[in-house]
Structures are given as structure tokens and as C-alpha cells.
Design brief:
It comes from Enhygromyxa salina. InterPro entries: Rhs_assc_core, T6SS_VgrG/RHS, TEN-like_YD-shell, YD. This is Teneurin-like YD-shell domain-containing protein. This protein has four helices and 55 strands. By secondary structure, it is mainly beta. It has a domain of 311 residues. The radius of gyration is 25 Å and the shape is globular.
Length: 726
């Protein structure tokens, strides 16, 4: 691993970070104004500088950011330090207003719709959120127990109802809803505060359970009292085996070097910055199934990629990026594509050898046209119709919670979905006939597919990566999922080394070629759930359309996702970034999901109350009394997004300081200078601290005690996983 050099000024503030040397040097510098505020951040791409300039008001709040392409992001603040406007580059302002005690009561995007655009929020006398009114006039209502203050019911004006029941200790033991017709309910069991089983009933039925070892770690996972996989660890608490998958790690860095499932072994190599630079899947030590090699620039972005499937002809890709870091030019052997964007990242054109396709957008960044495709949005911003011509129309239906309920295809076939109370899709229907169901091991990852009787038809096992399985068991056979560096499923191989499916994607996830011998993986681009009938990819909270490289709806956490464009996928860089949550992007799938070698289901138990109902409702479920605060948190999302783009890439960037914003927030976009900043070494990684009114250990400094170091990093006195996030 290349050494990191950090320089400080006379006041002990970071002014330069370097990693590597010579032609491989990665360098970022910070300059400050006379008041000590950062007014310039420069990331060097070789001899070329990417410069971000910041202007502040009299108390140090950023009011504008000049981006490397000379476009400007504006932020407005009121006298109380609350964010009241965000002006994306080239667009009109999004505005927020607050009630007299500082609670967000309205979000208003730029005018682009003949009707109401605002989302409004109402609270009770105890400052708890009780109603959200959407632009389409649909409402979400929250009722609380008079005696306990806990949420009694969440309902929508269209008829969805979610009802929690609690045990004597205040833990949620049952969640019913949201739709009575499907009869979906969830039952939970615990060992103390640790979730040990989750059971579904209704059209989709089944139970997922976890066993614990003497150290409190997950030791096994079972489905329907069978289909059990065991989990093993090394002396550093890093996972070494999950079921049939075994992991070998570097003795010095802990990074995964090989992953073996049966006779198929994957090897991984890394560059001096800790980034993956190559991988190969081999059957029986001889037959090469899939290889890829990567070259990166000074910002850690992939510029060249060579891949080979089943020992065939290598395919060479190259990538170029514009001044804002967006993908601008791609070649695949002799073929090419170039992309242009407006100031706020909307993709204006795609040019290939076959010609140029143009797109148009409205003031809220909603797509109107893409080539011959026309799009219609609902008042809340979701795409409700997509038409190629009058005979090729697709219609989409949503509920007030943001769930896609149904898609009507051009031939009038209707694909519909049911969800559990945590917002996870649990059933798919074709013309109202049950097609398949899913059981989940956490908020993001399905662990099994089941039929209408609850029989497991596919069992997924996650080991080396937290957003895509390593293998699947179906029909009594084990199939290895062959994935690229993003987690995109590129091939499926049976236990005898035979390819049963191959897939190739364009840079935005569009399927270039697909072949199968009867088996089709449910996982696709970047590890998302692929629906081949509706041609959308499901990533956590949202659905993604590879055709247009955009989300089907706005980011539900708005600007807290780190982008000024609420529809743009991973801020325009689908080559280097992923967004498995559908909320905010991560820069490196291997780095993020294996920083401690723990797959998501190992740590998902810590999130005992993440019920997928939006941040405001989740806060009430965990009894945090700051319900909605879109002030400094909005600004953090935007500025952290900028900082991440500008910083040196690689998993070992451990420089920086915590910046105080108001009385509630501290951010460390580059991590802390030392792992000794706190008892938790995760302080080395980018994180923030967000303070609620209920502080552990009586900590009083801004953001005291509640830091987003990593999802599985819990202080012993935190009540739950969400205490670390909100």
C-alpha cells in the first residue's frame, strides 16, 4: 500500500494530502481564507488541476461553490443557520421553509408543473411528524400512542396502512401491512436487542433466522428452519467462510485475495492504493471463466478495462471523463459513444457511429424526451408513462410511500408488486397471478425466492460482497455468480464449470448481449435486482432505467444524497460508482462493502428497526425526537459529494479534520488524522456525526456520539443501528 503524506499549516490544519509517487502520485490541496475557512480545494489529475472554490457568509457557511467546469452551486441560509435554498448549476432554486420552532414545513422545487409542486410537513405539540402531504395531494399520516409515544400506525390517503405492535420491552414484534389484500405481516424475535429471526406471512411466506456465537457474532443463517449456512471468522473477526464460500485474505491489509466456491476460485489483485486492478475466475485450477484488468488515472478512476469471457477474444474498453467527473467518452474495441450534459448533469446527448440521440428536461430535471421516447411524470416526480410511439406505451403506478405498484406493458400485460412494511418488494404478479416472492436478509438484499406455497426456489448466499450474492442454490444445484468489479453479474456457472448464462452491459447498465441455456439470474447491473419484463433495475429505495441512465423517481432523501440533481445516477460516473441503496453513491464496491470483510447480512441484525418508511418515520420508531431536519444535513450531502469527487481515491485516505457546522453536525469528509481520535478506528474513514437531543454519555459537543463511521460500527451505549445514522 502506497504511503500517505499529510501536510499541515501552523494551526495544525490539513493543507495537502499525497499518496503514491512519481507518475502515480495522487495529490489534493486545500487553501483557506483569512477567517480559516476552506475556500479552495484542488485535486490534481497528473499536471491538470480540478479546482473547487467556495464562498462563505460572515459566519462561515458556504453560500456558493464554483465547480471545475465554471458552473456554480448556490446555498441560501436563514438567520438561524437553516438551509433555505439550493440552486443547482443552471437551474432555479429549490426552497425549504421552517415553522417558528425550526421544523421543516415545506419543500418547494422549481416551478415546472401546472399544479402544486410543494411537499408539506405537519407536527404535533410534541414536535413529532404527523402528516406529509405530497404534491399529488396524497398524504402520509402517522399516529402515536398517548401512553408510550410510540408509533401506532402509518397510513396513506390511498389506503395503505402499516401497524406495529410492541413487546413488553418496547421492541417491535409485528408489522402488518401496508396492503391488506396481500395479508403481508412481519414477525420478529430477538436475543436481547439483537434481531434473531424475521418471518413473513401472506402471499409470500417464510422465515429467516440467525444464530449467534459466544462473542455475539452471526454464526449461521437459516431459511424456513433449514437451508442453513454457517459463518466463520479469523482472529481479527474478519469473515473467512459463509456456507460453501471461503475467503482468503492478505495478512497485511485484510483485503480479500481469493474467493472459492466448490471448484471455482476467484483471485483478486490490488494496486498500490488498495484499489482492485484485476481478477480472474478459474474452474478446477485450469479453465479461465472470466477475467478483467483495470487501469486507473490519478483520481483513481478506471480509464482502461480488458475483459475475457470463457477464454475467448479479449474485449477492450476505454473511458474518459469531463471536468465534473462525468463519463464523457467510451470505446469498446472499435465502437464508441460520447455523452454531453447540461450544467446540472442532465444527459443532453449520446453520440455513436449510428448518430446522435438528444434529450430534453424541465426545470426540476425531469426528463421529457429521449430520442423517440416521450416521458410523463406525476406531480411528485415519478415517471408515470414512457412511450416510444402510440403503440409502444408503458405505464407506471406508485403509492404515496414511493413503491412501484404496477407496470402496464405495451401488450397490456400487467406486472404488479407487493411490499412488506419495511418497504421491500416481497411478491411479483403477472396479470394478478402470483409469479415469485422474495425473503430478505436485511434492508437491501434478498436471501431467497419462494413460490406461492412458501417453498424455496432459489437460495442466495452472500460472502465476499455485500450487494450481490457469491452463489445461488436452485433445483438442488449450486451456481456461481461471476461478477465484475461493480458487482454486475456477467456470467452464471454450474458446479461442473459450464456457463449457463452470460451477460454484457454498456457503461450505464444497458444490456448489450445476453445468452442463457435456461437459467436466468435475478441479479444484473451493479448487483441490482433485474426485471427483464419491465427492463428496470431495483436498487434499494428506487428503480433505475438503464436506457436513460436515470432514476425513475427523485431521491427520497433529496439533497442529502450528495447530488444537486435528484434523478442523476451516481452523479454521472457509472463506471466507478454504485448505489445499492438508491440513496447515495459509493466510489468503490470492493472498498465499501469489504472494509471489515463483513457482508451485509452479518451486520444487518444491528439494524433492528430500519423499517424502510423514510428517515422521518424511522426516527420515530427509534424514539429519536428530532424528526425532520433538512438544514445542515442537506448541506453536508451536497458538500460531501463535492469533496468525494475531488479527493484522492483509494481506501486508505485517512487525513483531514472534523468540521463543525452549527450545533448539531460535524463532518470529516477525509476521515480523521489519526485512528486515535476516538476509541473506534473507523474514524479514519469519511464520516459525519449528527446529534439528537438524546446523547449517549452526556456528550455535548456538536454531533457528539452519533457518528456515521461505518454501518456496523456501534458504540456500546447506542440503542440501535439508527442511533449511528440520525
Amino acid at each position: 500500500m502506497s504511503a500517505i503524506s499529510i501536510d499541515y499549516d501552523m494551526q495544525g490544519r490539513v493543507i495537502e494530502v499525497e499518496q503514491g509517487a512519481g507518475a502515480d502520485l495522487r495529490r489534493t490541496t486545500l487553501d483557506r481564507d483569512t477567517d480559516g475557512f476552506v475556500d479552495e480545494l484542488v485535486a490534481y489529475l497528473g499536471m491538470v488541476a480540478r479546482t473547487y472554490e467556495f464562498s462563505h457568509d460572515g459566519v462561515g457557511r458556504i453560500v456558493s461553490a464554483l465547480l471545475p467546469d465554471a458552473s456554480t452551486l448556490g446555498l441560501g441560509w436563514d438567520e438561524e443557520g437553516r438551509l433555505v435554498s439550493v440552486t443547482p448549476p443552471g437551474q432555479s432554486a429549490h426552497t425549504m421553509s421552517y415553522d417558528p420552532v425550526g421544523r421543516l414545513d415545506e419543500y418547494d422545487p422549481p416551478d415546472a408543473f401546472m399544479g402544486t409542486d410543494e411537499t408539506t410537513y405537519e407536527y404535533d405539540d410534541d414536535h413529532r411528524l404527523v402528516q406529509v402531504t405530497r404534491p399529488d395531494t396524497e398524504t402520509i399520516d402517522i399516529e402515536y400512542s398517548v401512553s408510550t409515544g410510540r408509533v401506532d400506525e402509518v397510513s396513506t390517503s390511498e389506503g395503505a396502512v402499516i401497524t406495529p405492535t410492541y413487546d413488553a420491552s418496547g421492541r417491535i414484534e409485528n408489522l402488518a401491512g401496508p396492503y391488506a389484500a396481500a395479508g403481508t405481516e412481519l414477525d420478529f424475535t430477538y436475543n436481547g436487542s439483537v434481531l434473531t429471526s424475521e418471518e413473513w406471512s401472506g402471499d409470500t411466506a417464510g422465515v429467516v433466522a440467525w444464530g449467534l456465537d459466544s462473542a455475539g457474532r452471526i454464526s449461521s443463517q437459516s431459511i424456513n428452519a433449514g437451508s442453513t449456512v454457517s459463518v466463520s471468522y479469523d482472529d481479527d473477526d474478519l469473515v473467512t467462510a459463509v456456507g460453501a464460500a471461503t475467503l482468503a485474505r492478505s495478512a497485511t491489509t485484510g483485503q480479500i485475495e481469493t474467493v472459492s466456491v466448490g471448484d471455482i476460485e476467484q483471485t483478486l489483485t490490488y494496486d498500490g492504493f488498495g484499489d482492485v486492478d484485476g481478477s480472474e475466475y478459474i474452474y478446477d485450477g485450469i479453465d479461465s471463466l472470466f477475467t478483467y484488468e483495470l487501469e486507473r488515472d490519478h483520481l483513481g478512476r478506471i480509464t482502461e478495462q480488458t475483459e475475457t469471457v470463457d477464454g475467448g477474444t479479449p474485449v477492450a474498453w476505454t473511458y474518459q471523463y469531463d471536468d465534473r467527473g462525468r463519463l464523457s467518452y467510451v470505446t469498446r474495441d472499435a465502437a464508441y459513444a460520447s455523452y454531453t450534459y447540461d450544467d446540472n448533469g442532465n444527459r443532453l446527448s449520446v453520440t455513436t457511429a449510428g448518430g446522435t440521440t438528444y434529450a430534453t428536461y424541465d426545470e426540476q430535471d425531469r426528463i421529457e424526451e429521449y430520442g423517440n421516447w416521450d416521458f410523463v411524470h406525476g406531480p411528485a416526480g415519478e415517471i408515470i408513462e414512457k412511450a416510444y410511439n402510440v403503440s409502444d406505451v408503458r405505464q407506471y403506478e406508485y403509492d404515496a410511500l414511493g413503491n412501484l405498484l404496477a407496470v402496464t406493458l405495451p401488450d397490456s400485460t400487467k406486472i404488479s408488486y407487493d411490499y412488506d412494511a419495511r418497504g421491500r418488494v416481497v411478491a411479483r404478479y403477472i396479470d394478478n397471478v402470483f409469479d415469485k416472492g422474495w425473503l430478505w436478509q436485511d434492508q437491501l438484499n434478498p436471501v431467497a425466492e419462494v413460490d406461492d406455497t412458501g417453498v424455496i426456489t432459489a437460495r442466495y448466499v452472500y460472502a465476499s460482497r455485500g450487494h450481490v450474492p457469491d452463489y445461488v442454490i436452485t433445483g438442488g444445484e449450486t451456481y456461481r455468480l461471476i461478477t465484475d468489479y461493480r458487482g454486475s453479474v456477467r456470467a452464471v456457472v454450474d458446479d461442473e464449470g459450464n456457463l449457463v448464462q452470460t451477460i454484457e452491459y454498456g457503461p450505464w447498465g444497458e444490456v448489450i448481449t445476453e445468452w442463457n441455456s435456461g437459467y436466468e439470474s435475478s441479479f444484473g447491473f451493479a448487483g441490482g435486482l433485474w426485471d427483464p419484463d419491465v427492463k428496470l433495475v431495483r436498487f434499494g429505495a428506487r428503480l433505475y432505467d438503464p436506457l436513460i441512465g436515470r432514476w425513475m423517481m427523485k431521491d427520497p432523501i433529496l439533497f442529502d444524497g450528495g447530488q444537486a440533481n435528484l434523478y442523476f445516477y451516481v452523479d454521472g460516473d457509472p463506471v466507478n460508482r454504485i448505489d445499492p441503496e438508491g440513496l447515495s453513491w459509493y466510489g468503490d464496491a470492493w472498498t465499501w462493502f469489504d472494509q471489515s470483510g463483513v457482508p451485509d447480512f452479518i451486520v444487518g441484525w444491528g439494524d433492528t428497526v430500519s423499517f424502510g418508511l423514510g428517515a422521518a418515520i424511522r426516527k420515530n420508531f427509534t424514539n429519536l425526537d428530532d424528526v425532520v431536519n433538512y438544514d445542515a444535513n442537506y448541506a453536508y450531502g451536497l458538500l460531501a459529494g463535492l469533496a468525494t469527487q475531488a479527493c484522492i481515491a483509494g481506501p486508505s485516505v485517512a487525513a483531514g479534520e472534523e468540521l463543525v457546522i452549527g450545533v448539531r453536525l460535524r463532518i470529516a469528509p477525509w476521515g480523521n488524522r489519526s485512528s486515535n481520535w476516538a476509541p473506534h478506528p473507523t474514524g479514519r474513514y469519511p464520516h459525519y456525526h449528527w446529534r439528537s437531543k438524546r446523547l449517549p454519555n452526556g456528550q455535548g459537543k456538536p454531533g457528539g456520539g452519533l457518528g456515521r463511521h461505518r454501518p456496523w460500527d456501534l458504540h456500546p451505549d447506542d440503542v440501535s443501528f439508527w442511533d449511528r445514522f440520525f
